[in-house]
Amino acid sequence: MKKLINDPSTVVREMLEGVVTLSPATVLLADENVVIRSGLPDADKRKVAVLSGGGSGHEPAHAGYVGKGMLTVAVAGDVFTSPSTDAVLAGIRVAAGPAGALVIVKNYTGDRLNFGLAAELARAEGIPVEIVVVADDVALKDTVPADRRRGIAGTVLVHKLAGAAAEQGLPLKEVARIARAAADKLSSMGVSLGSCTLPAVGKPGFVLGEKEIEVGLGIHGEQGVRRMPIASAEELTKLVIDTIESDGRLKSGDRVALLVNGLGSTPPMELAIVARSAVALLEAKGVVVERAWAGTFLSALDMPGFSLSVIHVDADALALIDAPTDAGAWPRGGTLNRNRVLPSTKVEQGASGETKTTAAGVRLRQAAEVVAQALIAAEPQLTDLDSITGDGDLGASMVRGGEAVLALPKESFDDVSEGLMAMGNAMRKAIGGSSGPFYATGLMRAARHLAGIDEPTAEQMAEAFVAAVTAVSDLGGAKPGDRTMIDALYPAAQTFRDKVNAGTSAAEAWRSAVAAGVAGAEATQSMKPRLGRASYLGERAVGHPDGGAVAVGIWLEAIKVE
Questions:
Q1: How do residues 230-243 score in pLDDT, each as one tens digit?
Q2: Are residues 287 and 146 in the same domain?
Q3: Domain boundary pick from 271, 297, 322
Q4: pTM of the full predicted structure?
Q5: Does residue 541 register a pLDDT over 70?
Q6: Options 58, 62, 220, 544, the catalytic residue
Q7: Is 544 labeled as catalytic in the residue annotation?
Q8: By C-alpha distance, which of 101, 102, 105 is closest to 127?
């Protein structure tokens, strides 16, 4: 287990100290793990206090939502463990005045017991207290009665609505009514790609196969209601939305707010993809998505996965959602972009009349298809190589480039120059990073050298090859010996030109060029990198060939010259 902690026994306190250090809107109670909104007025002038909490490990919940317009108090237990009754009572006592306190509890036995008992003790002391229980987990719809479902990430939306209502100065009964109504209109469900690791345990709570996921899990590292094979983000999002709908919680014409929540280690890229799918699926059902957010709002330590929460809203609820708060973890905004795509400004070029396809153009297209297929087939090898000394995307980049070339129409290869230019443009558009610009530059430079030539000679092709390699070298600054694709390209191009100029047949010259290029790629194993990402590794890259050079060797070998 690798964790950035000091001592498992002090994780919660040190975490809260860090949170409060970075949040002037909060203060930490000296003798309990209770975070309180700072600067509260005298007790007799206080509005309704809104309290919530539970086990730690759900950050940024719950301390991240303490602030004006949201929670007044967050009570933290040990990791995935309910806080004690005394801690909850301390939070109520320090924050509540005559206006009383609303306690928002997620539907877990420990939380209900400890928060409920603390509320009863506070009432005995004369403090008015109302409790709202959130049970939003629709994954349990066929397992337990509705009032026994778990409370999960949608609870954050109840925090926001209740906190905004309390900030308006509404009485306790009304704040509680708004919170209960929000909880009743709330549905959530989670999907996990793996387990999480508790600091005090040091190993995952459960183990999934390489292609397995858990569906319908809670927020404490437990297993879900079922296990299934991994599916695409679109399919998993649809599974969650369909489950909410089958629970009778969605129909055409509904107005909702959507929370796309990461469970702890899901990157923003993946959450954005899920958000895209969720909004599209809801809109396709005729549901109006009034607000939506994507991020990590209530986690399960380092669990990979996501949950979706959907809450029905009207104008009053939207006003409370939009009300300002200085709680650090609340994402603000949430308004959807209704104009998401700018129409292309590309001018379509019409046909320019009859064109004649040259024999050389046909041969180039055939060679291009063979090269593309060879690079696509080499994806695992190139990915593995690039993962050692780069960022691991070379294989995928070559696949995208190969598919783009294969998608070119036959008319793109009416002659050699036109075909090379079309391939360059296809690679430029299909491949990001460095590979796209390098290949595009080389192909376009070669195209210009052969412009107007219907049947290029071997000498002309050789000169175009050398010019292409020079263009790549000039663009990236690489020279032979720098451990880049140039170490395969340069000897191949030079050998081909030298052999052709010496009177060797084109076929024999090409075989020599291929051998020189492959040898150059293999030689990169012993080179210390001087350019590119591999240069950051220094000597650690030695012993492994450069992926870009190996890719060059693959397509060189794929081309056959008769």
A1: 999 999 999 999 99
A2: yes
A3: 322
A4: 0.78
A5: no
A6: 220
A7: no
A8: 101
